[in-house]
Amino acid sequence: MKRIILLTLLIVVFFGCQSHMRTSKNYPANEIRFFSGVYKKGDNITEPKPVRSKYFRTYQGGFKVYRNTAGYRLVLEAIKTPRKKLFTKSIIENPEDINSPIVYTGYIDTKTKSITIEHGPVKNLQIYKDYKIDVITYEDELRTIEIDRLTQYIRSYVDTTNLQIKIMSGLEQKQNTAKQQSIQRQITFSDVLSSYKLPNEDIPSTGNKDKIIAAKQGLTFDGQMSQEGKIIVGKTGKNGPILIGVKFLHLPKGYVTEHVYYSKGPDALECQRTTKRYMKELFSSLK
Q: Is 61 in a helix, a strand, or coil?
């Protein structure tokens, strides 16, 4: 019988900043790298092509590498507005066991501009192998009436079959192109949190909603990077700071948000709860 790992989250969280991870010899410890595995003009023409369905089209797909780990990243842009709330299921191929996919559930509504699917760390990835993500849309919350399906393959240029991560030879040059540097600027944010000191009082930004949400949840708000599309909120945990960094990435039609979080080991569970609670209310306020 097929065994399915079911995770129900409104926000899919990627890597927290964990000090115990080993570092790849090829890349700095606190740097996030993104290796696109879906074709864009100028890329390898054999890469999987971006696909579209009734409600979505692929905007970006690939693998994020942080320290000695790697994980999926797929950004879908909404191309059709549903008339009512619809429910989604994302089925991510599990390289460790093809019969045990990773499943995330969520929803879209009339104000959805895009969705971002991230999962990591992922073990047993192989270089130049294509991996599948299905994003299925259902009419009902029980997810029995399927009305749309997007199937996107993503090529891996990362090997995580051993303790030490490997990157495909030659991709260092690809990372230095203008396009990759643009992607790098968009997603490299987590390293800021590892050395960040939470201010004693709020630092205002150009907006108000995110600060109001932070205050309601007892979090300190730092908006001094808001001009760059970044904010940080946090509080003091039992073993140190609990921090959430949010980056707003603008698309041709709307925007997506990326977020990272940081805490010391014993505060990990409280950090995840705080992140989920804050991001849920932030998303609701932006719709």
A: strand
pLDDT at 145: 96
Contact 51, 151 (CB under 8 A): yes
Q: Which residue has the tokens 């009902």?
A: 140
* DSSP-derived secondary structure letter, 180: H
Q: Each residue of 135-186: pLDDT tens digit?
A: 999 999 999 999 999 999 999 999 999 989 998 876 654 554 444 544 454 4
Q: Which domains does the chain have, with CATH numbers?
A: 5-177 (2.60.40.2550), 191-286 (3.30.310.80)
Q: What is the pTM of this model?
A: 0.57
pLDDT exceeding 90 applies to what percent of the chain?
34
CB contact at 8 A, 259 and 246: yes
What is the three-state SS of 96-144?
CCCCCCEEEEEEECCCCCEEEEEECCCCCCCCCCEEEEEEEEECCCCCC
225: which residues sit within 8 A by CB, 6+ positions away? 231, 232
At 165, which amino acid appears?
I
The answer to whether 97 and 124 have CB atoms below 8 angstroms apart is no
Cα–Cα distance between 232 and 54 in angstroms, integer? 36
Q: Cβ(4)–Cβ(99) under 8 Å?
A: no
Cβ(281)–Cβ(9) under 8 Å?
no
Q: What is the pLDDT of residues 210-264, one digit of tens each?
A: 778 888 899 998 888 877 778 888 899 888 888 888 877 665 555 566 777 777 7
Type of residue numbered 155:
R
Rounded Cα distance, 5 and 181, in Å: 35
3-state helix, strand, coil in the chain (%, to 5): 20, 35, 45
* Residue recorded with tokens 């540097």: 181
